[in-house]
């Protein structure tokens, strides 16, 4: 039995267990603690079929883009860092859980010597087990374990968020490159048209049929068109370099692969937003990570508060010992229970209280960050929806303009062949067609980028259930 003083200390400590703090559950978007809008304020793109976000990339009609996305994910430093953070969080979780359980150590020792003059040398050997256990009466250990578990969950979600971000970045860069290649083709046609106009205008001016100012203007336009072509080619080169850096692909090999589909923009499958804002945001890994950061901060606050109360530790040993000296030996089992150590915080200059207040402030900061993440997520989705609606509304007008300029050019070309229209009118019509085609390419690029942004804003098909089903381990 414990000594009376120790028994009273344990009993007094047990009476204070009700002071331990409780850990709140993970915040849910749309709850009172995490309010979000009740509905989307931008039109929903229900015109297309509903695609499964988890297989969305595979439905693109461009296999090269898929290979580049996979290459980018394999070499991404952000993914490597996220994997390292998962390993750290897993180790911390194991350590915090181990702190709740008793510790058991084995020890073996042997010695030989003579402790007093005139006595024969003696041998002592022992083997035993040593037990130690700190009772978690006030929940400090449980709070630390809860915080470690929450940080592990957060690190898993952040890994998935990094994976989705890398895929979106590679895809967006690839789309920008293909659109740039299409613009280069239009810029080449425009520069060629302006050069022909400048040549004809110069001949007409030398013959006295056109004023010299017209030739100067035509030459200036041709020079400007050539400068625009050089600028577009340089932009394409920069995008190739960016894509090479993102995927760690050799630039020469990458250019050979890109040459097979020059100026062809990948066509994504359309997807629809069928969930309410709160349901959609629950599928975002960054929101899931921020919610678990709130839980971890709350657990840290509970642990810091529990550190202000007494701590009780138990110890015990059991083993066997053999002593041999002067031809006489003895052996047997030895054991002990105790000591029971009760640590009562009396005076620390306010350090524990300051730590508790700081932990509470970190919890409030985590809740603010979580609320801000929710607002940013709503904005991301709304921005993508607005852009998709805008591009859809503009598509008919751009198509009509391009079709009209095409018909005008064909009519002008027929008139030129019949001798009714001049070459100046033909080149002017050609430039209008080039501008209309460039506008159509820009609109197509903007729309594809908006689909990618919507995919990213909806979480890329990630779900908490998928992580739990996989044993809370990231995919290799």
TrEMBL record:
Signal peptide: 1-22
Membrane topology: Lipid-anchor
Recorded family membership: Belongs to the outer membrane factor (OMF) (TC 1.B.17) family.
Gene3D superfamilies linked: Outer membrane efflux proteins (OEP) (1.20.1600.10)
Localization, UniProt: Cell membrane
Keyword Membrane: yes
Domain of life, per lineage: Bacteria
Protein name: Efflux transporter outer membrane subunit
Keyword Transmembrane helix appears in the UniProt entry: no
Organism: Caldimonas mangrovi
Keywords: Lipoprotein, Membrane, Palmitate, Signal, Transmembrane, Transmembrane beta strand
